[in-house]
Amino acid sequence: MTEPVAKQADTDAATPVAPPALPWLEELPPRQIVAELDRYIVGQQAAKKAVAIAVRNRWRRAQAPEAIRDEILPNNIIMIGPTGVGKTEIARRLARLAGAPFIKVEASKFTEVGYVGRDVESMVRDLVDASINMVRGEREDDVYPTAEQRAEERLLDLLLPPVEIAAGDKPKDEPRDKAKPELVVDDQEDKQQGERRGRTREKLRALLKDGKLEEKEIEIEVTQQNMPPMFEMMQPPQGSEGPDFTFTEWMQDMLPRRKKRRTVRVTEARRILVDEELKKLVDMDDVVNEALDRVENHGVIFIDELDKIAGERGTVGPDVSREGVQRDLLPIVEGSTVQTRYGYVRTDHVLFIAAGAFSVAKPSDLIPELQGRFPIRVELLPLTREDFVRIMTEPENALTKQYQALVAADGATLEFTKDGIDEIARIATLVNERLENIGARRLHTIMTTLLEDLLFDLPNVAEKKAVFDAESVRNRLMKIVEDEDLRKYIL
Length: 491
What we know:
about 500 residues, alpha/beta, Helicase, Ruva Protein, domain 3, two-stranded antiparallel ribbon
């Protein structure tokens, strides 16, 4: 297997080379998976290691002999740690880096089914929908050049209609009136006319590619869904999805589709035509089969706020609802068959990663059957002042880099000195100690307050360079930090 490169090698500026495409995350060795997560997440090596092993085991299972492959079950993970230390960020990065279906759900959504909550099987249906969109997107990317080419030819037909249509001639297969003499067309004249039309068509093609016809209006035929307003209002009550089949969808399939002519600009017509050609080129049956296979063998579900449904067993009140959600979750995590609009899906080999602060409840407060389905438990450490400094400087998506990109849109530059970043980290640590500890999220509140005036005045200020050192950070923030009321409501 070709080892992917984390960063693109230096190449000659005259001949830029596109960076190599990364394979699926589970095809990478565990160390490489951790290295990919390190690009965006600081610290928490124990959690990264556990996730890397679990994800890599999906690929290892696929290489195992078929006789034992179905017996190898995933090792589900519980990540335990206070808020703002990277649990959700690890999930988000897994979603972006993994070529496998991935969704994130909050366990607290399932505590009030029928009112504002959802049934637990909906997470599997959401995973299937995500997989369908992923596979369809991949298929559309493969055939997009062909779809663009076909759409361009249809655009040229609309801009320069064929001779029969332009002249109002009857189709060739229509019987001629024998009472009238046939019109004899000279072959040479017909050939010259065809050559002129060909040259005109190529000129229009060049104008299209140069973007000089984008604002021109043309008439296009689009498919319109006839859906009576009374049926559009018939939606199922929230929390009672059941199988993903609704009366509205059934009516959409049953009602005929009418063609409607619209006058649109060329840029809009191109989008409509490309979309129609993509639907013709992509085989949805193949997409569904591939998507369901990915869900069953490579799907990952991240269950956040698991501690919100944990509580001492045998109590009354809201804890009964929480324990009920745990019992509903159990068969899904354990392995069951869920009905979706695309068919039945087995969850035996779906990887479940749960997370929670567990500041009030403990993992042992979960029902024993559910505890046994999460054999790997990883504790994430609270963030220190040194971690805050690294978070603002090392990741590729560091907050300092994000704000530098934002002010660059106004033609300005933003610079943070080393002591300025250290001062921001010190204030973040101090506020977390005095108020609620929200981890790295405190950096967002502090940076927003620090740069508020700059971002407000930036378009009109003469000086387009801003430098934040320790003194300027302290002058801007210490008044808020020292004022308890301001600190409580601003930071």
